[in-house]
Amino acid sequence: MTNLMKHVSRPVTLAAMTAAGLLMGMTAAPSAMAATGTPAPECVEYYQSWRYTDVHNGCSDTVSVTVEYTDGQWAPCRTIEPGGRATFSGYGTNGNYVTGLRTCDPVSGA
Known about the structure:
This protein is an alpha+beta fold. It is built from one helix and six strands, in the order αββββββ.
C-alpha cells in the first residue's frame, strides 16, 4: 500500500504544484482595470498599423496614456506633452488591434 501511495501522490502533487503556479501567476499580474484610469480625452488620438500605434496629444495639457489591445494586454504608460507624439506597439501579424486609450499613472505604471 505504501508503494501505491507513492504513485498516487506524485500525480496529485504535480497537479497541485501546477495549479499553485498558475494561480500565483494570475495573482501577480495586475488586472486590466487596476492598470488604467479613465478613457483618454478625445483630443488624444491614435493611428494604428501592423507595426506601430502612433498616439498624438492634441490637448492643451500633458497627458499620460496607455494603449489597450484586443488580447487584453496594456502598453506601458507614457506621458505626452501638448502637441507631442508617442509610439506604441502595433497590432502585429496576429491582428492584436487597439481597443482604446486610457489615462494612467506614469510613476506606478498603472
